[in-house]
User: Fold this.
Amino acid sequence: MWKFLLLAFRNVFRNRRRTLMTLTMVGGGVAGLLLVGGFFAFMFRGLRESTINNGLGHLQIYTANHFRRDETRALETGIDHWQQVAGVVSSGRHVRGVAPRIEFYGIISNGVKSSVFMGSAVDPDSEKGLGFTPRLTAGRDLDGKPSGEMEALIGTGVARSMNVKVGDGLTLLAVTSDGALNGVDVQIVGLVNTGYKEVDDRYLRITLPSAQRLLQSDRVTNLVVGLDATENTDQVWAELAPRLRGLPQEVTLKKWVELATYYNQVKTLFSGIFLFLGIIVFFMVVMSSVNTLLMAMLERTREIGTMLAMGTPRSWVVGLFVLEATLIGVLGALAGVVGGNLIGTMLNHAGLHMPPPPGLTVDLAFRVLHVPSLMIGSSLLVISSLALASILPAVRASRLQIAEALAHV
Amino acid sequence: MHDLVAMEEVSRKFPMDHSYVNALDHTNFRVVPGEFMAIAGPSGSGKSTLLNLIGCIDKPTTGRVLLDGVDTSTLKTTRLTALRRDKIGFVFQTFNLIPVFTASENVEFPLLLQGMPAQERRDRVSVALDSVGLTERAKHRPDLLSGGERQRVAVARAIVHRPALVLADEPTANLDTRNATQLIDLMRDLNRRLGLTFIFSTHDQRLLEHADRIVELCDGRVTSDRKSDSLSKRGQSCGSFSCSRLEMSSGTGAGH
Assistant:
């Protein structure tokens, strides 16, 4: 059998220029897929980590009712005795910390003008412990144990709209858990730029005690769990979920990916684009290879006739052509993987940056990740494309009339 | 002695435009093992068609072709493939060696098709190459061999699997006199020494002079089937053999 492999291998290099052209095309397709796929993988990873580190965390704990019905009053479906829940979670492996949160909304006013805010109340120390630090453009972060007035961070859009700066005061109005309207004065200690204009125009962040005073409740909306590495998310989820079932209040544990709507939308979009590119490469390889392989078959008509005359089974002729195409595919894929990784490394060292994508206000570093699964997938794609492309010429070769093939000039 | 080849009322027609061309017309003859037989005739007389039919790479329109007693005209493709692989060796006018294989790999090819073990293949190839005097050139690819050497490799390839029959289509047509003479001597020697049956088509007078028996074709009909000793003196021939058509019954073989 290895003699047939040898025959196929030598046939591949029979017309070196043509083989080189095919290899360049196949290798180029693989390299292109690796570069685009590597960049997308870098974007996904960056978006994933920024999504998690911007406050989403790796896991979040809500009451089960939170997802069953809408709240009619503030913190109606919040977590009671959240310290007990946090205690259960904190003891888990890979858990770096737990941060309680209250998500709420209300009206913010400077005494002259009012606007709607989307508020988040946090424990600053827990947040810092998990590395969730707001991107400040002015001032400082919230103090975990403020001595004076209630502190607040607002978005740059809110500051512009309210015409306020660090050190100024604002009034927050919200409906309490009892349904009454309540208000508190806060002092602006910092301005935040999240990178998303729509968020910056509504952003407010205060401490947990401030929000509990405003909303008149000891509950929290959720607990955010930070892990030592994103890759451990599934494992920790599997370990924690059973332990949380024994608590008095029914709670549910969500992975970050279930809550990262924007990340999932971006990933779906770019995966679609990558799939489209893969289809283009597939057709590019198939169409050009069919032509090349048909030419090779025509050139070897008499030789195939001779082989058939000597008693070579027609299935062997099919196998020979498919094997030759597969070999070209393997060599092309190898060249593509080497070339793609080489170009990717060079681009990474060039320190390129992309302009800010839609919805973001900061530019994006251009990096190409070396993803083994992508290398394997791209290689398999071109190898199978070539094997598929060889079927038509192979079948034609195997069906040659021997007498006519031997008379072929 | 039994017939190795028997042609019984064999005709082969090829479609051309809206009619047919009779490449072979009611041909009859028989070949016994060990014959060294030439098929002569001008271009278009049906020599290659006849060899194709004997070699099981074509089927007759009517009539029967029997190889070693088996009616090949009724066999399926796979059986014909096996028959060619096991019983027939081919030598072509243009050598038809596999260009990416060395001389020894080319000779080994029929044995690969038979699924022979590697050691036995090596031994057989060595003997075959030795018998054509090309042991020293075993590792050379065809493009590094002369025309004569290539044809000797082709002969080695045709005999390596010890076929019952070797078919050679104009084997000396592309060779100069010296190489042609060497090849004729080689084929004759293999015929005598190993008892191999050779059937070859040729225009080559040198080759015809060595044949035991000559079947002459003209316009798809056997016009002469005789022992070769009188060929050079014959008064009638066809085409390049300057003949008028001999209307003799195309039946009895000289070897019978």
